[in-house]
């Protein structure tokens, strides 16, 4: 008698069973938890430093967001995200997305997943969602700890925007949430880049490093005036546009443009990752 | 996932039961230019225990990877359980490919749960029970809660076998399943293969150590340098080599015995009290009969079939453990 059983579950249920397993794998891994804790420590340390220096001569120095933190704890969220964007968040994204496929390949688990069988497109999707979830967790851990530490150290009040206008606490909190979501979405392009690199190698560290390098190089290119023509298309060019949400009238064109660039990077590198992964010989 | 299109009727005679694995001109040329597998026509009948033998580097693993859809053939085709598309039938195939591969920081059981969760056609409700059964079957139940990285090489190999046994399978593809196992573990694997075969599972088992699995095989295929030198039922392979007969006689009977053997048409070589000859087509039983009839005091009689290893050496002119 053939052992082929009727599918025991719907396709959607089967997908989520693997997706849950992937999320547990990504979010339960000790290395990743340490990363999240490290990111969560940033707002805590920043808050404490600002708290103890607020009445000294150092008070008020540094970037714009930093000066506002002592007046309103909500700004600790924004200031922490701002501090993490250039390096810590790209590093975190690099580790999560670079590890996605290459990590399975180097552990020898990729060949076993594929012979289960898991379709390669489905596996890539599951891996992408896992890496995105980790990116979201990274940004969220900064935001949540920033909010708690900010509220505890400085209290939360009506928000004075960068433009000088003041909005209510509720509206201000919503704007800070928008900042956090925008930053999260700004990282999706880098996730796609990391995922692509992850399909090229069996050495996860290589894919991770390459991903971080892309973010850094993009940041460097963004500072060279001679290359201003390509600046708008750079992966990192629009990352700081989250500041739009702190103006009385956010420029939705700027925000939409930033998200569109991310969507383009996701589309291009997602397609590259897919075409590579679905055709490559798995010899790991 | 679409339901596997099973072309094999539920009840069939062994002759028409189809093949578990079939390949036609299967070839893999890697980008380096190296031809790892060179036009092989593999045929593994259903119900067989197929010993896929060859030295390290002879192309066995690459062949297995192509059969399982991990590596794309440069040319040729492979059918797995009569399907040209491995993905359709892989749920019915358990595989151990080039050593076990698991997440080091997950426990043995968590690793099995992960693989089961990946299987679209497995039933989540029975996952725990099936994992326990598989772990018990390979003798790993006591260590199921330990992280994989703490496993010994033998335990890792067992977990790999457990993963292949998570469900009932029509075909097991076991690539070097005895690697890293001690003699006791190797015996257990042989026993397991025998049990599974008796329960109707086809087993394709590869090894670079001829003696290790030879005993349980009903069919044998021998690879060398990317080519399939020989394949077929065990007894056919066995009869390929030239059998030799060795007769030991009491002192003083050597000359008479030699005469009797020569009359039987054998080309006799004498070493002290032992007379040796190639058996040819002669029925072995005729020899002691004739000797006793001539009054020779026979103290020893032995027919030696060449070992598989000797057959291999005859075919290739080189030792078995020669890596490429």
Automatic annotation (TrEMBL), chain A:
The keyword Transmembrane applies. Keywords: Membrane, Transmembrane, Transmembrane helix. Signal peptide: none annotated. The chain crosses the membrane at residues 33-53, 73-102, 123-156, 176-197, 209-234, 254-274. The keyword Membrane applies. PANTHER family: INTEGRAL MEMBRANE PROTEIN-RELATED, MEMBRANE PROTEIN. This is ABC transporter permease. It comes from Cellulomonas rhizosphaerae.
TrEMBL record, chain B:
It comes from the Bacteria. Keywords: ATP-binding, Nucleotide-binding, Transport. Pfam families: ABC_tran. The keyword Transport applies. GO terms for molecular function: ATP binding; ATP hydrolysis activity. SMART domains: AAA. PROSITE patterns: ABC_TRANSPORTER_1, ABC_TRANSPORTER_2. Residues 21-250 form the ABC transporter domain. Belongs to the ABC transporter superfamily. This is ATP-binding cassette domain-containing protein.
